Amino acid sequence: MQTKYLRFPEALAVAMALACLLVLALHPVGAQRHSGTDTYAITNARIVTVSGPVIEQGTVIIRDGLIAAVGAGITPPPDARIIDGTGLTVYPGIIDASSTLGIPRPSPSPTAGGGGGGGGGFAALFGQNAPSATSPNSTQLPGMQPEILASDIIRPGGTEIEAARNAGITTAQTAPRGNVFLGQSAVINLAGDTPQQMIVRSPVALYIGLAPIGGGQYPGSLMGVFSSVKQALLDARRYREANEIYERNPRGLKRPGQDKSLAALLPVLAGRMPVAMQAEREREVDRALDLAREFNIKLIINGGLEADHVAARLKAMNVPVLLSLNFPKRTAAASPEAEPETLRVLRERVEAPKTAGRLAAAGVRFAFQSGGMTSITDYLTNAAKAVEGGLSHDDAVRALTLGPAEILGVASQLGSIEVGKIANLTITRGDILDRTRRITNVFIDGRPVELRPAATERGAGRPAAPPTPTPEPNDY
Amino acid sequence: MKKLLSLAFLVIMAGGIASAQPRSAAVQNTLIRNATVLTVSHGTLTNTDVLIRNGKIAGIGKGLKAPEGARLIDATGKFVLPGIVDAHSHTMMDGGVNECTRSVTSMARVQDILNPTAIGIYRELAGGTTSALLLHGSCNSIGGLSSTVKLKWGHTAADFPFPGAMPGIKFALGENPKRTNQNNPGVPARYPATRMGVEETIRDAFARARDYKRDWDDYRAAIARGEKNVAPPRRDLELDPLVEVLEGKRYVHSHCYRADEILMLIGVADDFGFKIRTFQHVLEGYKVATEIARHGAGASTFADFWGYKMEAYDAIPYNSAIMVRHGIVVSVNSDSDETARRLNIEAAKMIRFGGLTEEEALKLVTLNPAIQLGIDRRVGTIDLDKDADLAIWSAHPLSVYAHVEQTFIDGELLFDRQADLARRPQLEAERKTLEAADANKPPAQGGGPPRAPSAIRRANAHEDDNQEREDNQR
């Protein structure tokens, strides 16, 4: 469209051309830009569609961000840029089913916890006003605010997102950090210059954590965490009821106070929004299931280290698991003086990679997630360990792609290589679960992403870098 | 020394495997033959058999016939004692025993945080303890809701709560709720700061509970009259349990030390028309035993543990005996995962201090705590049709030389000393295999500091005034 303006006939007055240029300069780039260069064809590749059979030698056509065609014997359109996929395998873009990608780390502010605005000083000092995970005019303390939306606070770019892309991850569910009510998650694509470009779906799930607020603020214990969650859900029920009564006939009734924290829980009570609850061990999963049953909540288990112990109950209640690939491992240095580690700890580390296979065998729906791992390059490596631990190869690939897409409600857009879906692709030389595989290309929203394998470590404690557009050859 | 340590460690961890074993649906019947049975309710029976059928005590007598398929145990020279009941425990609690942030935390529930894999459970079974009152800590004037449990090691948390047990709530008086000995940097001071404030906090809470109850009563009456457009009062998890206390549907177990504060709480309870079920610790109970008895409260105390803070100085080991002689239902408790393994010895001390009879001493850790928790219809004595919660001891349990051979709950064998000993080589072999696995190898370079001995709990860690306890999930 824009190039058309520039090719306008010479009859156009100079002044008008200038005006047009001015409009162009003010017009935000990005949202609608596309041209013939947005068409790609990956030819002669092995295509793991996930939704259907593997195509041993075929072509994927990408146009305008979507998968336009897939199959054997497809002729690339003349305007497509050809990527020779000989010896390569094309997978649906890998999904990290639970992360904090794009969520700014809380800035150390002396006023944090006091409600309102939050982290001013530190962020201002560094010239960037990081969106703080504090909801203005909330009735609840920070850490207890279900109304916080990941989509309101995510920032594009940054080393963690880049590292995830380099590891072959194209999409993630991302949730705010916090204590008890963390807020509502979003599914984002890991490319885009603005938050709006990244978001695929929002809100997705309400995140509930188990970390007490502490520092003298309620709740200060795990007991208190459960009590505060239950009280909030009860209050939300009453809030709904009081508003319904008031709306039927406000005359003569005191109006119920507005409360956006309680309002944010209404979709959860109505079963429209699932709750992703942190639960690693058997008893934690049991507690989450008990809570879900008590309040008739649609539950997703987040973590799931021992979810296989509760497989029958998970299956019976149709609760899926976002299974962490951040397997426990020994981090303590060797020392002859040290206390021996308990058998329980030793067992847990050896058993962790076997959970996925057992969940699959029991018919529990699950998807892999990164679980806060320090090095995201372990993501596929540990998925391979799950295969060594008894998960079938196909189930593992599914748990990296279509599995999470289904659980997160984006299966019509993502998770498999099918015509009409978003063109997120992870392309490898070698099988994706083979230790020697190399990620050669990543497409997000139909555009290739530059991979920099050196920058694989997630930044630790660093503030997110300002948004940097991904440089692309022949862009614009 | 190292070998000794690792052996001790194996003992500690031996229980781990039990949870991995499959749980059999039907519990095997058992006939214990030719034991000395300390019934607690009706004396000592020598050369007596005890039949356990379907989890209940189905026979006590001589020459009982074993049902088909029953486990036969020759208990010649051994003693059968009812399962010990610990009326003050903080075992198997995840994520802190105290919700310390407020003066009234009756919304907090121990039942929400039960950890059925806590190793303390297994150790307590090894000491013949089968039931416990799991109490919230003593951080607040009105604390959280307690949970009465059977220590059903190897089961999931859902199997632990004692069926039909009366619900309870923790209160606390004196130095702990007024935070005398707590000055944590970064944590703002919390009301109350005096004993006066503790009383006011409790009175205020019950005044609020009374208003709350009236609001609900009014609402229900309005609905019953057919009124429309009435919004219900807010359901308040803090006040619900206090209403239950007012209605006599929930027991109050109050931490206390000094005579004056004991009298204060009796006064508050009288004013609001509820009862204190037990005074816990109650080290100065001997000074006000008449008043405690008149109120009808029980007392659950330490055998001979005092002087660990100002309000615990004026204590005497004759406390239990004096209160018993005043007609109070007295129990001796552990308040500690360590002491909970040897409550039989705590009971024995009360023969030395105050001259209780053997049966009176045994009652301190069996029938009396069962009465205090409202579970004496099910446990606490060896009587027909009671739950088969009992232990077989190698010698008279009031002897320091006695140890537990086997412990049963609901007829299920949950601790077996011989099986434990037999399992140890197998566990050592498993350890070797596990340690060789990649995930258990120390990092090639760097790595965090090694596991410190302090991670093991101190031997004499009483929970009385510990704000936080170590996470015992590992």
Short description:
The complex is a heterodimer of chains A (476) and B (474). With 476 residues, chain A is an alpha/beta fold.
Task: Annotate the secondary structure layout.
The complex is a heterodimer of chains A (476) and B (474).
Chain A: H1 2-6, H2 14-26, E1 39-47, E2 55-63, E3 66-71, E4 81-84, E5 88-92, E6 94-99, H3 121-125, H4 150-153, H5 159-166, E7 169-174, E8 181-184, E9 186-189, H6 195-198, E10 199-201, E11 206-208, H7 222-248, H8 260-269, E12 275-279, H9 282-295, E13 299-303, H10 311-316, E14 321-324, H11 343-351, H12 355-362, E15 366-369, H13 378-388, H14 393-400, H15 402-407, E16 425-429, E17 438-444, E18 447-449
Parallel strand pairs in A: 1-4, 1-5, 6-7, 11-12, 12-13, 13-14, 14-15
Antiparallel strand pairs in A: 1-2, 2-3, 5-16, 7-9, 8-11, 9-10, 16-17, 17-18
Helix pairs in contact in A: 7-8
Chain B: H1 2-13, E1 30-38, E2 44-53, E3 56-61, E4 71-74, E5 79-82, E6 84-89, H2 119-125, E7 129-134, E8 142-150, E9 168-172, H3 195-224, H4 240-246, E10 251-256, H5 259-272, E11 278-281, H6 289-295, E12 298-301, H7 319-325, E13 330-332, H8 343-352, H9 358-363, H10 367-373, E14 390-393, E15 404-409, E16 412-416, H11 417-436
Parallel strand pairs in B: 1-4, 1-5, 6-7, 9-10, 10-11, 11-12, 12-13
Antiparallel strand pairs in B: 1-2, 2-3, 5-14, 7-8, 8-9, 14-15, 15-16
Helix pairs in contact in B: 3-4, 3-5
Written account of the structure:
The complex is a heterodimer of chains A (476) and B (474). Chain A is α/β, with parallel strands linked by helices and 476 residues long. Chain A contains 15 helices and 18 strands. In chain A, the strands form 3 sheets. In chain A, strands 1, 2, 3, 4, 5, 16, 17 and 18 form an 8-stranded mixed β-sheet that branches. In chain A, strands 8-11-12-13-14-15 form a 6-stranded mixed β-sheet. Chain A has a 4-stranded mixed β-sheet with strand order 6-7-9-10. In chain A, α7 packs across α8. Chain B has 474 residues and is an alpha/beta fold. Chain B folds into 2 domains: 119 residues, Urease, subunit C, domain 1 (Roll), CATH 2.30.40; 296 residues, Alpha-Beta Barrel (TIM Barrel). Chain B is built from 11 helices and 16 strands. In chain B, strands 1, 2, 3, 4, 5, 14, 15 and 16 form an 8-stranded mixed β-sheet that branches. An 8-stranded mixed β-sheet of chain B has the order 6-7-8-9-10-11-12-13, with helices on both faces. In chain B, β11, α6 and β12 form a beta-alpha-beta unit. Chain B is globular. Chain B starts with a helix and ends in a 38-residue tail after the last helix. The N terminus and C terminus of chain B are likely disordered. At the A-B interface, α7, α9 and α11 of A face α1 and α11 of B.
